[in-house]
Structure formats: structure tokens, C-alpha cells
Amino acid sequence: SMIEIIINTSFSFVNTVLERFGLKKIYENKITDCEQQLASYEHPKTFESFFATVRDDMNSYDDPKLKKVLKRIDEILIYTVPSGENFRAILTVQTFKNMVNEVSINDKLLKQCYALSWFEEITQAASLVYHDMMKKSDTRNGKRCLHLR
């Protein structure tokens, strides 16, 4: 998976730097522990399913003027966001879990973390749409760019 590639690449880089400066033996155990923890991380299904909550919340507005705009935004979200790697979201969720004591994690905090994570992914998707428009790109990740649809 992509996350395994990123983790392996990151640790290869760290190992190379430590070897170059003769520090690998000092940090070897710490790196191994951290590598095992990161490699065992799984992207939670509840995070993925929270995307539906984000969309439902957005589509719950009754304002007739907003309905048309929100419908278009929803189409954009469906086209751009789920196909991403969600790397920012993965880091946010994992950082949250590492920073907060497991005992104090509750549904409300986790939902807020998921909402923030999806906000990051939506913002990233919007940035990529803007980037594609400015660069006059035709495709992104093998799909026709959104601004050309």
C-alpha cells in the first residue's frame, strides 16, 4: 500500500542519514520500535465512513439558495476527495491518537478529529483543482481534471 511505501522510504532515509553520521547503533532500537508501530497502523474504517457524515451534514441545509451550490460542492467532493491518498488525514488521526491518552478518547473527540481530517482532505482537493486550473492541466491521476468536466 502507499502508506507502507512512505513508511519504508522514510525509514530508509533515516537509516541512511544515521549511518552516514555513525549514529545508527545509538538509535537502532528506537527506530525499530517506531517502525513496527507505524507499520501496524491501519486506516480506520470509521474515518472512511465519516465522509458520509460530512456530506450528510452539508446536504442538510434547507436554504433554497444554497441547495444548488451545495449540490455542486457535493459532486466535486465525490469526484475529488475519496480518490486521494488521505495522507494528511492519516497523519492527523495518528497524531491525535498519539497525543491524547487512550482513556480520554471519546466519540465526540474522535468525530472532531475525523471532521478536521476530512477538512484537510477537502482543502487539499480544492488546492489541486486550483493548481490544475492555473497550470491548464488536462488530467490528474488518470482522470479528467474537474475544471474540464
From TrEMBL:
Keywords associated with the record: Magnesium, Metal-binding, Transferase
InterPro entries: FPS1-like, Isoprenoid_synthase_dom_sf, Polyprenyl_synt
Any one Gene Ontology molecular-function term assigned to this protein's record: metal ion binding
Keyword Transferase: yes
One GO term of the biological process aspect: pheromone biosynthetic process
Coiled coil feature spans: none
Pathway: Pheromone biosynthesis
Tagged with keyword Metal-binding: yes
GO cellular component, one term: cytoplasm
Necessary cofactors: Mg(2+)
Protein name as annotated: Farnesyl pyrophosphate synthase-like protein
Native organism taxonomy: Eukaryota, Metazoa, Ecdysozoa, Arthropoda, Chelicerata
